[in-house]
Amino acid sequence: MTQKNKLIINCQATHVTAAKFSTQGGKLVLEDLKMQELSYDYSVQEDWLDALRSTLKIMNVSGKATVIAPSMLLLTKTIKIPHVEPARQKEVISFEAEKNIPYPISEVSWDYQIISDDGVESEIFLTSMKSSAADEFCEALSSVGIVPESIEASSILDYNTWKYCGLESDVVILNIGARFSNMLVVRDDGLFARSIPVGGNALTQAIGDSMGQNFEVAEDLKRRYFKNHEEIEMSATASNATEHFTASAKSVMQRISLELKRSILNYRRTGRVAAPKKIYLTGRGALLPGFAEYLAEDQKMDVEFLDSLSNVSVTSGLNQALLSACSAQMSELVGEAARSVIQSGMGVNLLPKHIIDEAAFAAKRPLMVLGAALLAVATVPPFLFISKAISTDASFISDFSEKTPAIQSRIDKLQENEQKVKAVSAKIAGLEGLAKSKSNWINLFIDIEQKLMEQKDVWLDNLRVVRSTDGKNQKYNLELTGRLLLRDVNPDDPTAYDTNKAIDRINKLLDSFKSSEFIKDYANVRTDPSNPRILKFDFTLVVNPDKPI
């Protein structure tokens, strides 16, 4: 039996891969594959989201999808808790999460996966993402027509690939990414997971430092060198710089190998007597020439590349050249797809709760509206029947008078039902307004954050919402208090304070806020120039009534 396609999008630090899988006879079938590099300076993580949005537009993927988040957005940790009954498990894990996540639990989207349980202790893989980052991630996806059904952590998906491919137990799976590398020790009764903060970007930075080049130039040189060093004769400049590449590569290999040794040592300290006997490499960073041979020698273990497509059927129309080029990047996609065909597959969902709730409500809304409509329609026939009987046949008046109490009771019941219909409709309208208001809140704060970043050197100390009513209309004001830095002022020379520059900075900030679609005007502007470098201010922003919050 064939199941319909499942779209999975792997959003990594340097590229995006989108694949559609179906299942046939308990086996995965790869139906479609797209891959696109992200275009931005990989050393500036703040530019990643804009690059992701632009790249997804180019790839032209849309619809409901499972999205894999990169390790750079995640905080992961493996914890142990006493074995408890399933009914109390979530409560105990929530308590431990509050202690182990270094942010208020209300400010993160988090989930967990039980990775082993021996009846005495349970090992828990705990992962979290800042709620603000999760919301921005979902907003970027939604802006290009992608509806995220879940946000998976890339850290443990290779376990599912290992299980689906039927590989041996007690092996290491090392996935070399751009910013981070994920290391798993997989066994029949669970796994050991660790995120290693070394990846392909570390090699780029080492090359840049060695050659005195910035990150973007070093990244371009790295790609050209390691792609063509055995096939194409390098230019004179590149040939002279070969030692920079080889020395930097060896340094990164040593760092990864050292972290791997430390991770395996920590794994042995958990009570595991047997050491892993083989390493499977995956991820684009693992293709570094000589890396597999170096690990085999340094770790004294066999090293192989993980063939994640070994048990996956591929449709005949798929671009084989693209598939071959992406083979090292497929393990996480296959791992997520395999959850539908293997038992005890592992994964988490970091989709913010408010988005899950909104999706659930949206799914129920058509049924609620239909039920209300049917209930309203049900009141029409009795009224029509009564009206027609009274107007067409006066002879029934006497009988009608005798039956009035029963009919009146029915009328009262129908009127009661009508009031219930109106109440349900009002709740639906209120919930829709609440959803719209929540969306406006999110977009307003994103807009305010962008305005502050554009103006630079501005801090907000306080933001307060003030609601008031003018007749039937609701008014919304935002009272802001903050500070801005005047860079050109010498704090040791009070006479150097330039009032015009301070006024100009405040006016630019106010005009920037007024240009927002959420802000109608500003008022009550006050400043405190007592500190020549730090200008304190407070003012009121009048919210556009068409964009209620």
Shape: globular
Task: Report how far the terminal alpha carbons are from each other.
Answer: 49 Å
Classify the helix fraction into a percent range: 40-55%
- Category by helix and strand content: alpha/beta
Under the CATH scheme, the architecture of the largest domain is 2-Layer Sandwich
Count of domains? 4
Rg over CA atoms: 31 Å
The quaternary organization reads as single chain
Q: Strand tally, please?
A: 18
Label this structure with key terms.
549 residues, alpha/beta, Nucleotidyltransferase, domain 5, 4 domains, six-stranded mixed β-sheet, five-stranded mixed β-sheet, 18 strands
Question: What does this entry show, briefly?
Answer:
The chain is of the alpha/beta class and 549 residues long.
Please characterize this protein's 3D structure.
By secondary structure, the chain is of the alpha/beta class. The protein has four domains: 1-164 and 311-350, Nucleotidyltransferase, domain 5; 167-307, 2-Layer Sandwich (Nucleotidyltransferase, domain 5); 357-437, no CATH class; 456-543, Alpha-Beta Plaits (2-Layer Sandwich). The chain is 44% helix and 28% strand. The chain is built from 15 helices and 18 strands. The chain has helices at 48-59, 86-100, 131-142, 157-165, 200-211, 215-228, 236-240, 242-269, 291-299, 320-325, 331-337, 353-378, 380-392, 397-455, 499-514; strands at residues 2-11, 15-24, 27-37, 63-69, 75-82, 108-117, 121-130, 146-153, 171-176, 181-187, 190-196, 278-282, 302-305, 313-314, 458-470, 473-485, 519-528, 534-543. Strands 8-4-1-2-3-14 form a six-stranded mixed sheet. Strands 11-10-9-12-13 form a five-stranded mixed sheet, sandwiched between helices. Helix 9 links the parallel strand 12 and strand 13 (302-305). Helix 1 runs parallel beside helix 3. The protein is globular and about 105 Å long. It starts with a strand and ends in a 6-residue tail after the last strand. The relative contact order is 0.09. The model has no long low-confidence stretch (mean pLDDT 85).
